[in-house]
Amino acid sequence: MKSNSNNKMNHENKITALYLRISDSDRDRDESNSITNQRQMLHDVALKLNLSNIREYIDDGITGTNRDRKAFVKMQSDIEKGEIGVVMVKDLSRLARDHIKADTLIEEFFPEHDVRLIATNDGIDTSKGEDEIIPFKNLMNEFYSRDLSKKRRAVNVIKGNAGKSLSRPPYGYMKNPENPDYWIIDEEPAEVVRRIYTMYLGGFGYEQIAATLDKDNILIPVNYWKSKGINCGSKIKADTVPTNWCYGTVRKILSVQEYCGDVINFKTYSKSFKLKKRIKNSDENIKVFKDVHEAIIDRATWEKVQSKRLKTRKRVSSDGVKNVFSGFLICPDCGGNLNYHYNQTNHEIKYFNCANNNKPRGTCTATHYIRADFLEQIILQEIQRLTAFATLHEKEFINMVSGFSKQTEASELKRQEKELNRLTSRNKEIDKMFERLYEDNVNGKVNDERYHKMSANYEAEQADNNKRIKILREEVQRGNNQQYAADNFISVVRKYTNPAEITQMMLSELIEKIEVFHAEKIDGQTVQRLNIYYNFVGEIELPQFAGVPAIEARLNTRQGVDVVYSPKSKKEAV
Fold this sequence. Notes:
Elements: H1 5-13, E1 15-22, H2 24-29, H3 35-48, E2 54-60, H4 70-80, E3 84-89, H5 92-95, H6 99-112, E4 116-119, E5 124-125, H7 134-161, E6 173-176, E7 179-185, H8 187-201, H9 206-215, H10 221-227, H11 247-253, E8 263-265, E9 268-269, E10 279-280, E11 287-289, H12 299-310, E12 329-330, E13 338-342, E14 350-354, H13 355-358, E15 370-371, H14 372-392, H15 394-402, H16 407-442, H17 448-495, H18 504-510, E16 511-516, E17 520-522, E18 525-534, E19 554-556, E20 562-566
Parallel strand pairs: 1-2, 1-3, 3-4, 12-16, 18-20
Antiparallel strand pairs: 4-5, 6-7, 8-11, 9-10, 13-14, 14-15, 16-18, 17-18, 19-20
Helix pairs in contact: 6-7, 7-16, 7-17, 9-11, 14-15, 16-17
């Protein structure tokens, strides 16, 4: 690119743009590429060249393969407006690490807009004429990014398979200052997370929860991180209200499995180091490591929330009245939900019936009708009996719920845990060995051929270890599940000693589902059967013990028909 005296005069009257860029990988590897270092160098060179009217454009923490860098795009726009005459960079790699983009800029865009390019460390100044070495330098800069991406992916595979988190901590966690590969609880937002889960189980919807948090002036996650000086990678619009919680944010928080203490790696992937779009990975390629960090939400609560979220619940009748049992009632014949209604003649009568029988093309042959007040009478008495038994006969209750573990099973569980710990420790050793190997390769102590051969061996060993670890984790989890579920159920039951009324929270914590059978005539009496499935433990048949009340649920209908309750299953004779 040749310049004449008029062009030089034009450059003197225009802005000298200092473009400064550093990526996270540059920051970790080379202090000379720091923004401070680049700024000082370019200002010194501008002073020597008598260039004035200086303006800085800075992209901090942005890779050179990204074509949509905010400051870079702004500089291009100012060039197109004719405001910039000179662009200065430390070297061509700061401008771009995509050789096609870099070549287009230098050979077409800059000459078209009469812009002089100076890359100080590469000794390039386009005012002195064309430089044939530029395309080769651009190509080598891209090769560097390609090789670095390949090595970082290899490191991430090792770290990810070892159970170290590869993603940012979700709202409620922060990186451990002593070991950034692991998370610790950030108590202020963690309390908000707990509140969201509690409200949801208490019957609040996404919008209601969001409105409540907004009313209480709770910062949304992005603004909370910003207030703490944490770069979360998300852009905040200028008109965003700091406390404007929305449906989607609440729904996302209620779906995050990491709140149980888990690490989930390889959820997404990219097809190329040049493409920033992340693609959802298949389930078999996702790695889940349980109980790696401290849980904000206990697993039982999280699973209960997921179960509730998956259900399609008709929460209101046609008059807009809510009912606490909506979504808990299941038809044992067709598996469909029971919907909530009110009697067209007498609106005081509320009832449920099978959705698949109520529809014009329904497939269920019976209504499975049950009055809401009768249902509440039954469930309240059942819970009162359960809590009375747990209080008065605690030892028998615990034994009934927990069962008894055989000594051989306990011994096998101990052996599995020992092997699991050994393999996990070995994977950590391999991880450290690989990191040392990576450093030796970067420093030239180990050549690329040796590096790839040794890393392949490490990866193969870890792959075998991870297969066995996955099997062992599942076996250990199964061994612990019975006691874990029993402990959770026992603790929940103790919360509701002799309740006086049914609440949404009580049902959510105690009951998974209730099967409602179609009422039958038996010996001249109308009998209503229910099967109650409790969370974690399923059906419970309480033995007869002193102090435990008997069920006396009965409904006198307006037609003079008495309906009585039977807790026995459909397969049992009444």
